[in-house]
Amino acid sequence: MSQIRKLYNTIEKVQKIINPNYLKEEERLILKLYTKRKKVENPLILDKADYYVIGQLLIIVYFFNLNYVSLGTVNGVKNEIIMVNNSSNDDCIALDFYYTKSKDIANEIIRNSVFNTSILKSLKNLDNKSILRLKEGFIYSYEAIINEKYNILKLFKPYSNSEDLKWICNVIWKLRNGSYEDLKRQLNFIDIFFEIALKEEEFIEMLTKSLEDDTLTQEYFINQADKLIKEGIVGYHEGNVELTWIIEENNNLIPANLSKLGGLKVRSDFLNYVGKRIGDKYYCKVAEQVLFSMDQQ
Asked: For residues 135 and 141, is the Cβ–Cβ distance under 8 A?
């Protein structure tokens, strides 16, 4: 069996795992699989009830590093999707070994995020109901990936000698590192894409005003600081642990290190304030780590 046929079969098996309605007959969606070298003749059949299923397809795009380049009518068939392997020549994702600066780690997360998939970019003008359905499908299928991770990873044993080993390494790395934390991050990227998330300017304003608000409780500041730290990206640079975030600027995702809005300094000031207010040096130490990250700007 050819490697491309194995890939086709593997994606089909994963789709069956994450979509319990895979074999329904009504309202079906045709998915054709391509690579840079060869086309699979027989199309892969998926259901299409609504944007819930598009959310499920986004999971396949995200974990398999695939790029859906069209979503329309092809050869008289509505909602035909052409799927292209767009990263077969990329090196393996190995953040733990190749990247240490938080800025570089953030850039790699952005590059491999759901935000940069063509299928998402083709859905720019969705109403709130459709966005919610898309996210529900995305969540359901991501949780299925987490719950069935062991069984899905077993499907990749036939690829040990694959000519696309670098691409397979990418996929396996993503599957192994699939988590509820990453699910939350990708959902936030979807919100940013559809412009329903808090913008960086608004977030900076909120943090700044909170420092001047005497009515806010100590619990509020602790919760906000903990949430901020949890969403950060930790790196290591010139002997120092440093921290950054992924933000939206000019309709793109970028590491906060590259922003001209001053968000890193505001975050550092906020964490330092919380540390001094409650007498906990931990938050002051993290504030210093944010300042170390600013050296990469």
From this structure: no
